[in-house]
Specification:
The strands form two sheets. A six-stranded parallel beta sheet has the order 3-2-1-7-8-9, with helices on both faces. The chain has a three-stranded antiparallel beta sheet with strand order 5-4-6, covered by helices on one side. The protein has ten helices and nine strands. With 244 residues, the chain is an alpha/beta fold. It has helices spanning 7-16, 26-30, 49-52, 55-60, 62-76, 83-94, 108-112, 169-181, 200-206, 233-236; strands at 19-24, 97-102, 117-119, 122-129, 135-137, 156-160, 184-188, 210-215, 227-230. The protein has two domains: 7-34 and 81-121 and 167-240, TPP-binding domain (Rossmann fold, 3-Layer(aba) Sandwich); 40-78 and 129-160, SIR2/SIRT2 'Small Domain' (2-Layer Sandwich), CATH 3.30.1600. It binds ligand BJW and zinc ion. Residues 129, 131-132, 134, 149, 151-152, 154 line the site of zinc ion. Ligand BJW binds next to helix 2.
């Protein structure tokens, strides 16, 4: 078990690796100014998930839910990818088998240039029709309520995976395969409490990968991974690659 690895050792392992998978969470975007969910400054401190981010909440009061997403869209629109997002783009460009799995809905990985990417909890810049299920991009600021599907006149909802909802099957197949078969799994800025992403560290370990966590604080993953580094994503992740 390679405990005692330094971050520069991990960089050297990455330089040799043919297959790398990365899982990110809200912590990577915290350094761009996007609030996390949990913790003292997190979104759930002021808003309860079941009141705003659940299918029941949307059924009960879609206008309130859209007001909250409108507020977050206005906020995210002012944010830019940081050095951690950019380093992952550089890694993607030089590693043969690379897959980035993000739980973030802010779109900052794609904005940075990531292409081999699964946004497993959706994207705040997409909407989905509650009647015909058509997904479409939408960057309206503000999004005028009620947003209506141009195909069937159904009410549009955020294209985001709420608690109790299924994740996209193709995304999950691809993500599980990437986690199972990688040489290295990097887990960056996630509290590691939300499934299915919470199961990725043990799955990668079972597959024989080197599993590395980068987070401001210890998490439930810290005791599973081979090595955990504490610090800000924008400071730690660039040490692993060649970001500008
Ligand atoms: C920094 C930093 C810096 C800060 N640098 N680091 C198995 C067992 C038990 C329960 C379940 C299970 N399988 C499914 C469930 C139910 C449920 C679940 O997981 N519940 C748990 C809470 C127990 N999962 C689901 O319902 C999922 N659906 C599903 O599995 O369908 C099938 C099924 C359903 C039901 C039962 C069984 C099967 C769907 C989950 C969808 C989650 N969606 C959300 C909300 C979206 C709303 C929105 O965005 O508008 O997605 S929840 C919320 O948490 C959001 C995030 O993507 C997700 C993860 O959060 P994340 O990214 O980890 O953020 P934080 O805030 O928690 O942590 C930030 C971290 O960053 C911290 O660690 C900081 O230290 C760190 N940090 N600054 C580095 N600068
Ligand atoms: Zn429709």
């Amino acid at each position: 078990m390679p405990s005692g690895l330094t971050i520069l050792d991990v960089r050297d392992c990455l330089a040799q690796a043919r297959s790398v998978t990365v899982l990110t969470g809200a912590g990577i975007s915290a350094d761009s100014g996007v609030p996390t969910f949990r913790g003292p400054e997190g979104l759930w401190k002021n808003y309860r998930p079941e009141e705003l981010a659940s299918p029941e909440a949307f059924a009960r009061d879609p206008k309130l839910v859209w007001e909250w997403y409108n507020w977050r869209r206005e906020l995210v629109a002012t944010k830019q990818p940081n050095a951690a997002h950019k380093t992952l783009v550089a890694l993607e460009r030089r590693i043969e088998h690379f897959w980035l799995i993000t739980q973030n809905v802010d779109g900052l990985h794609a904005l940075a240039g990531s292409q081999r990417l699964s946004e497993i909890h959706g994207n705040i810049w997409k909407v989905r029709c509650t009647q015909c299920n058509r997904v479409s991009p939408n960057r309206d600021l503000p999004l005028v309520y009620p947003p209506i599907c141009t195909d069937c006149s159904g009410l549009l909802r955020p294209h985001i995976v709420w608690f109790g909802e299924s994740l996209d099957q193709d995304d999950m197949t691809r993500s599980y395969q990437a986690v199972r078969t990688c040489d290295i799994l990097l887990i960056i800025g996630t509290s590691g409490v939300v499934y299915p992403a919470a199961s990725f560290a043990p799955i990668a370990k079972d597959g024989g990968a080197l599993v590395v966590e980068l987070n401001l604080d210890p998490t439930p993953n810290s005791s599973i991974v081979d090595v955990a580094f504490q610090g800000r994503a924008k400071d730690l992740v660039p040490l692993l690659g060649d970001a500008t």
